[in-house]
Fold this protein.
Amino acid sequence: MNDQTIRFEPKDEERLEVRRILKEVCSALNEKGYDPLDQLVGYLLSGDPAYITSYKNARVLIRKVDRDQILEELIRYYMEREGI
């Protein structure tokens, strides 16, 4: 039995792709008059893609990455900004 903790570190390219997708999705949500924070929280909690507009292919884009990857990147970004 192995008692060591396994560290998972996504590749930098994957992290950059998640950030790019989030920026595009937020931009599309803003352009359509939605609050990106509210819409992304709804999507992340429920998994329902209807929270994301189909405008500018945002719904297709957001579904290209797992919700876990999105949450991880959001938390990583927050922790980096706060120096945690």
In short: The two ends are 32 Å apart (CA to CA). The chain is about 60% helix and 0% strand. The chain has one domain: 12-82.
